[in-house]
Each structure stands twice: as C-alpha cells, then as structure tokens.
Design a protein that fits this description.
Number of domains: 3
Number of helices: 4
Number of strands: 43
C-alpha cells in the first residue's frame, strides 16, 4: 500500500471521500504540496496507516482535527492564532513543526544537510557562498517558530582558524534563504529568555534577540560563566534546553603545555631539551639536526612557527602572526627554507628562510586554503591538502604555481624519496582510512598498501611509516623497476598525541632511525560537566531581553 495526496484530494471533491456519493454541496478549495523534509509527492511507503508520516497526512490531520485512523489532533497545537479556525497556512506550519529531521554539517568545508530522523536521503539545506567569503557552515541548532528555522555559524575564508570574525546566521526553510543576524562570534544558541548566546575570544556572550523578527537588539555582554570551547573551530561545549537549563563543560583555563620526545625504531624515548609549550606538527630538517614546529593551539589565530636545535635545545621564533595563525611547516630539501600554511587575510602557503633572515612571502599571489604536506626532494613540487571547497590532494608546481588535482577526498600526501610516487590517506565515509600509493605523474594504477587501517604516511629512505590506531607501522616499498610493497610490520605502541586528519603530529628522520612525537593532550583537559537549572532566568535578570 502506498498513500498519496490523491486520498486527500478525494476527500475534498467527493462527499465523505466516496466517488459514488457525488460532489459535496459546499464550495471547497484544495491545497496540495510536498516539501523537502517529506517523501516525494507527499507519499509514504508505510503499510500501516498509523505510521503515515508524509506531508499530506500531517496537513489534512491538522485541518480536520483527526488523523487518518481517527485519532484526535490537538487543535490548539494547530490553531496558532487561537481564532478557532485552522487555516491552510497554519496546517502547513503544523507539518513543519512536527517535522522530525536532523540538520548537520557533513564536512568542515561544506554547507548544512538535512535528513529525516526516521531515515532517508540527506538533502542540502544551505550552500556556501565563496563570493561572500564563506568557507564553512557549522554548529546548527533549531530556532523556535513556525518554520523550523536553523541558527548556525558561518566560518570565513579569511580566517579558517579564527572564529572571532565569524557570522551567525539563520536559514529559513520556507524561503530557503540565509541571512546574517550577528557578525563577530560563533556557536550561536537561542536562549528562551530572549537572548542570543555566542562565543568570542574564548568567552561566552549574550545579546538581546527578537526570536520572531530574528534580529538582535542592543549590545552584547560578556558573561561570567566559564564555558570551555575550541577557538580554532568556533565550538563551545554547551547545550541549552527549552526550559532554561544549561549543560556545559567548565573551562580549565589555558591549554596544558606539551613536550617534544624523540624515540628510536623500537619506541624507546628520550626527551628534547626544550621547555614545555603547546607544540604541534614537528618536522625534522633534512639532516635531522633541527625541528620546525608549531607553537599555539594547533590551528588558531595565535599559532606560530618555531625552529628547535636538537643538540642545544635552542628555540627560535620564525613567524610573528599578530593574530594570524601560522602552522604546519615543511622543509625544503636543502634545509634553507620552510613553507607553512597561514590564516592571515592572504590565506595559503607562505615561505620563509629557515634562519629567519629576509621576510615572509606568499607562495601565490591569490589566497588559497592550502596545507603543505610535503616538499619533493628535487624542490620542484609541493604535495598539499586542499581544504576548500572539499578536502583533496593536489600537486603544486613551484615553477608555474599550477595546482593539479591528484586525489579527490585524499589527505596527508607525501612523496617517495625519488619523487616518482605519492602516498596519501583515503578517507571513505563508513570505512576505515587506508594508505594508497600511486604515480606522482597522476597516470597509472593505484596500489592500496593497507587492508586493516592506516593514516599519516611518512616516506623515508628505509620505507613507509604510518599509524594504525595507536600502533606505529612500517612497510618496505620497492619502487624500481615496479612498485612492490613488502609485509607490514608493527614497530611499537604510540602513547603520544596521534593527531586528527589531515593534521599529522609526528615525523621520522630520512634514515628511519629517529621519531619525534608530542606528549600530552592536544588542548585543554576536561574532566567535568556542569548543569545549571533555570540558568536563563538568572540571565534575564542580568540582561533584559528584547522588547
């Protein structure tokens, strides 16, 4: 059995819905439609009438005051203006309000998607507008009202790791339009006290907010509540209920310092003689005597590149971001230059002399959201992870600055020592990540190296190293006359920061004898969740709502 809106049409044009009874004596007008959150043509494939969740069943139930099976429908829940009559517009609003769908961001450089909670196909809700500087739509939540509007954060191309300048916007399903309601914050949340909550500079703010007109009224106020979050992604760790209760992770203050540690091929550690800092993304120089490392949150507006002398422990600052994040360094083959990604207004790959002389220079004249992953030993190419509008592997020529798409959906690429092959991580939704190798020229077949799982390849003179969960793995690979991988071996357990795709938090010297890792948790140490009842009532006393 398939129920369609034809049943509703019959009820409209025939007395009692029976074609043999003739037309009704009263004049009637019908409205039939479907919507993106209901099955096609207003239909449902359910064979049980009690489970019909299609558009027309909900629409007619609101108009009639009873469902198809005769169950009563709460008229007050459909009659929004309480005039005793449920109009077509109110019936339509009832359908949207009883919509049980989930809005989510499938990727960190995508628009929002919507999918029925009961299952089905996900459909686009919002689309990025690169011309307006948009890079990401994230952190969605529903707003109260009659059209299931969604409040969300717009991350910008000019600052992927800086959400202090992000926009908070509303998507309205009825018009499918997006409009900005606040600029200069992230993680917008509606409070039933009549406020918009948001994060900026690792602080929680509130501003009076007219939920019906969807506009702010007045100036924002910083709140005393210390709520944890991640400034590099714009998230705040809190949830707000409709009754005014708030659940949140309290901030523990500054991120804990981390340490650099070297190990041999058996995992035996020895410390690096440098003071504890918030280290990320260590990379050995070609001679193995120095490190380039990021110090800061790891992908935020206070990151900078430093170099470390492994013999003396001397730390030398290479970049001074002044609020623009600089991170993820790679060395040139001669050890004289370092390339890195920057989140400044001219976003993309920048270059600097490794000894700090000269000035920083952008690699390309136009801004590109690119992450340098490796620099070929002949000095002619970068292997990069492109972060927008999707995450892909690109090969970038230093001679003509031309980027070539190498592997859609790939990440963390590295060249073989002879530059003829590229290894990278393939991330497939619902499947374990795998390591794949293919010719650097782009033509020729792909060879999947792993069968269980693999991420973060590093290709040395000895062979290919990678992670499998918390294990360091190794495989010898012959590249001439053809590619021939050997058997994969487990080397040791990794009790250090493993990193998250596509950001690798370890490295190996070219001879394969020495590894560098980072001890400690990548960020703050959260061990508690607090619950505050009637929290918004206190907020209303401190900051009157919009009128």
């Amino acid at each position: 059995m398939v129920q369609c809106y034809s049943g509703g049409f019959a009820d409209l044009v025939f007395a009692g819905g029976q074609s043999t009874a003739g037309a009704p004596k009263t004049v009637r007008c019908g409205f039939f439609a479907t919507s993106a959150d209901r099955m096609a043509a207003g239909c449902t494939s359910s064979v049980d009438e009690a489970n019909y969740e299609d558009y027309s069943s909900s629409f007619w139930a609101a108009l009639r005051g009873r469902t198809r099976t005769g169950a009563a429908v709460d008229k007050d829940a459909c009659d929004f203006d309480h005039d005793g009559v449920v109009t077509f517009a109110e019936a339509h609003a009832h359908v949207l309000l009883t919509d049980d769908s989930i809005v989510f961001a499938p990727d960190y450089t995508s628009g929002l998607m919507r999918i029925p909670a009961r299952g089905g196909r996900a459909e686009p809700a919002t689309r990025l507008d690169p011309a307006a500087g948009e890079r990401s739509h994230r952190w969605p939540t529903y707003l109260p009202g009659d059209d299931s509007a969604v409040l969300f954060t717009i991350g910008l191309l000019k600052g992927p790791g800086n959400y202090d300048d992000a926009r908070i916007a509303v998507w309205e399903p009825s018009t499918r339009k997006v409009r900005t309601v606040y600029e200069g914050g992230s993680m917008g949340r509606w409070a039933p006290s009549g406020h918009l909550l948001f994060f900026r500079s690792e602080m929680l703010f509130a501003v009076p907010f007219d939920g019906r007109r969807r506009q702010t009224a007045g100036a924002p106020v910083a709140l005393n509540d210390k709520v944890a979050g991640d400034p590099s992604s714009g998230v705040g760790y809190l949830a707000l209920a409709g009754n005014g209760t708030i659940v949140y992770v309290p901030s523990s203050g500054a991120a804990k310092d981390r340490s650099l540690v070297l190990t041999d091929a058996a995992g035996k550690p020895r410390p690096v003689p440098v003071p504890p800092r918030s280290y990320h993304y260590p990379r050995f120089s070609p001679d193995g005597k120095r490190l380039a490392v990021t110090i800061g949150p790891g992908h935020g507006n206070s990151d900078d590149i430093w170099t470390v002398d492994l013999e003396t422990g001397a730390l030398t600052r290479l970049t001074i971001g002044d609020g623009n994040g600089n991170y993820y360094p790679v060395w040139s083959n001669d050890g004289r230059r370092i390339a890195y990604s920057s989140d400044r207004a001219h976003q993309g790959i920048w270059l600097r002399s490794a000894d700090g002389s000269g000035v920083e220079e952008p690699f390309r004249p136009d801004a590109r959201p690119e992450l340098p992953s490796d620099w070929s030993r002949d000095g002619a190419r970068f292997a990069i992870t492109k972060n927008f509008p999707s995450t892909d592997v690109n090969i970038l020529s230093l001679r003509d600055q031309k980027a070539t798409l190498f592997e859609p959906g790939g990440a963390s690429p590295v060249f073989s020592p002879d530059g003829k092959w590229v290894a990278y991580t393939v991330v497939s939704p619902g499947s374990p990540s795998q390591i794949v190798v293919q010719p650097a020229a782009g033509s020729g077949g792909k060879v999947q190296i792993t069968s269980d799982r693999g991420v973060f390849p590093v290709w040395t003179d000895r062979g290919l190293y990678f992670h499998n969960n918390k294990r360091m793995m190794f495989v010898e690979i012959q590249t001439e006359p053809t590619l021939r991988p050997g058997a994969i071996r487990e080397l040791f357990e990794i009790p250090y920061d493993l990193g998250t795709q596509p950001l690798r938090e370890y490295d190996v010297t070219r001879d394969g004898n020495t590894f560098v890792f980072i001890t400690g948790y990548a960020g703050r140490d959260w061990r508690r969740v607090d619950v505050a009842l009637s929290w918004t009532a206190e907020l209303a006393r401190q900051l009157p709502a919009a009128k």
